[in-house]
Amino acid sequence: MGEIIEFPTNGNGGKTNGYLVTPESGSGPGVIVIQEWWGLVDHIKDVADRFAKEGFVALAPDFYHGTTTTSPDEAGRLMMALNIDQVEVDMRGAIDYLLALDSTTGERVGTVGYCLGGQLSLYAACANSKVGACVDYYGVHPNVKPDIPNLQAPVLGFFAEKDGFVPPDVVQKLESDLQAEGKQLEFHTYPEADHAFFNDSRPEVYHATHAQDTWSKMIPFLQNNL
Known about the structure:
Elements: E1 3-8, E2 15-21, E3 28-34, H1 42-53, E4 57-61, H2 72-81, H3 84-100, E5 104-114, H4 116-127, E6 131-137, E7 155-160, H5 168-180, E8 185-190, H6 208-225
């Protein structure tokens, strides 16, 4: 449904690629779809396509700049090698590009991320007032520290009871930190679910019922806040 596009990421000629898809209606609210640690793989493009079918203009930036992997070890190395300052520049460029499109309605975008992307979704929402809604699917990255006091968007979080990367105590701390700052949030932790339970390209962890439940909660959340 979509296409690979290039968008500027700073005033010095920097550019980043992304996957952009527009709904059949021709316009809609903007959503930034943020990759897992595998990179901008077909699964993330498919998720962007699904958002377009729900009426959103979806952009999935390529934070690995062309690199993808199916190896967990390589994915971990790529994730840890990310320059977080550059990621924020790339994210800001993606948000500005999306909002500047004639097809994008509204003045703020949503950010939705999975795994690595979940943490980057929250990070972006804390760094950029142009984010009007933040969705965090089991976000994890030890070096990404969202500036929670600066957060201006409501947060919807989805987590897994059996997640070894983001265990329940980590989720509880994040929830407490957000509540302590008076932020608007709604967290859901799914029983018997594992990390990446939304990813239907990974049958070993995918949980169809829980994945569909998150989708049914997320779409109205984005529609109501954008």
